[in-house]
Structures are given as C-alpha cells and as structure tokens.
Amino acid sequence: MHYRGRFAPSPSGALHFGSLVAAVGSFVRARAEGGAWLVRMEDIDPPREIPGAASDILATLGAFGMRADEPVVYQSLRDTAYDRAFARLRDADLVFPCWCSRVDLEASAGIHRGACRAAPDTTRGPAWRLRAPDVDVSFIDLLQGTQAQNLRRDVGDFVIRRVEGWFAYQLAVVVDDADAAITEVVRGSDLLDSTPRQIHLQQLLGLQTPAYLHLPVVLDADGRKLSKADHARPVDRCEPLAALRMAIDFLGLEVGAGVTPAALLERAIDSFSVARLRGANGAHVGTAECET
What we know:
Blueprint: E1 4-7, H1 17-32, E2 36-41, H2 53-63, E3 73-74, H3 79-91, E4 95-98, E5 127-130, E6 136-141, E7 145-150, H4 151-155, E8 158-161, H5 169-179, E9 184-188, H6 195-205, E10 211-215, H7 240-250, H8 261-271, H9 274-278
Parallel strand pairs: 1-2, 2-3, 9-10
Antiparallel strand pairs: 4-5, 5-8, 6-7
Helix pairs in contact: 1-7, 1-8, 3-5, 5-6, 7-8
C-alpha cells in the first residue's frame, strides 16, 4: 500500500518545539517513503481548545515548509463516524456505562477493573468504558522495539466516551487513522502507552493496524516533557530556520546549509533512516516567540 502518514496536533495552544519535532519527524518520514502526509486537528476536547489555535498551528506548519497533501480533517466534524464505531461496540456488549469518579478509583491507582464503585446517578450521564480483557497486547515499534501491555492489569477498563458526551481520544484516533488509510503512525513516545489500547480497538472493530514509530520526546531543563499545559514557548514562525535546524538535529538527521525551510527539509529527507533516529540525542534549546 502507498505510504500514508499524518500529524495530529490538538488546538490547545500554539505549536511548541516538542510538537515541531513530531511534525518534522512525521513529514520527513512520509517524504522519504515517497508517500502522502496528512494533518488532522484533534479538536474533540472543547474546554482545552483555544480559539484561533487550529489556524495558528496550520499557519506555523506552512511557515516551516510543511503543508498537508489533502484537506485538513477536524475531529469535531466526525461525530457520525465515531457514533458508528461506538454503536458497534455497544451492540457487541463490549462497553458499559460508568459513573465512577477519580476519588472512587483512588484505591486502585486510578485503574478501573470490573465492577463500578459508584451507583448510577440519574442527575448526569455516564462515561462509557471498554471492558479491558486479561490479555497481553504486543507490537514492534520501528524505533522503540518490542512493546507489550496487559490491558486489564496495566490499563483497566478505559473510557471511550466521556461524561459530557464527547468521544475520547482512544476511539477517535483509531477511527480516524482507519478512515484516512494511514499506513504508519509517527508520533512522540509519550503516546507509546496508548498504542496497545488502540490496537485492541482496531481488532474489535475489524480495522487494519498501521505500523508505529514513536519518536524521542523533547524534555525541558527539569526533565519534563514539553507541553502546552506547562506553557512551553511557541516556535517562531516569523523566523523558522533556527527552530527547524534544531528539530532536524534533535532527530539525528543531517541539517545541511539550506537557507529556506524547504531546503533544510529536503536535506533531512535525503538523510532519513530509522538507524539515524536511534542515534538521536539532541537537546532542546528555547526559541523566541514570534513578534507581532
């Protein structure tokens, strides 16, 4: 099958350096494979979404020389597809309503296994959880190697539809990747733990499982993953070359001496290999926010 990759940011803030590394990694991998690169906006969490962030992220990607090969997909417009998948799981009795709160689950370290600790509450809707079987789900990540997780022990029954009625990330990403015919998922290794749940959902829904390649995560000076929640500084789309060079270097690829984003990316594409990614040991250096 022709290679199809994607980058799937959430519009909860501007693109920071950690997200730039994931974008560059997925873009360069797709181009090195002669394939298509898609962008999906994961905007299914309204309380976390910042107005204008989606268009800002797309403008920043463009300034860094990365444009999607197909129209951008917005998860907020795909409830019909998620509803169909949810209905299949419910009709097969694979999901159940749950009113348990975080406090209810404290004794089990936040993991839900089997019976609910909270009685049904008619004053609000439930979350819907997928029953986690006592099975080991394993896969080989192209960069991180063999991975395995026991769903019941390590994850427990996990939410696929939230109390508010919004569909959860695990279900949405599985449906979206299948509908877009994604052949390989390239993303940060902070999402490595989610992959077994997604593979299990793919199997239940009869969907193809893509290949996976989880990139090194950029850490701050305190050893924490860069995140919008911790106010990681946005990359500067007015002056993209410095941050783009750092992102390519972080991934262990050859930067070259290009004076445009396109030239830098082309050199990275030419030098791409998974072996180079395994040797990546770059460090994050802060980038200035764009002056407007």
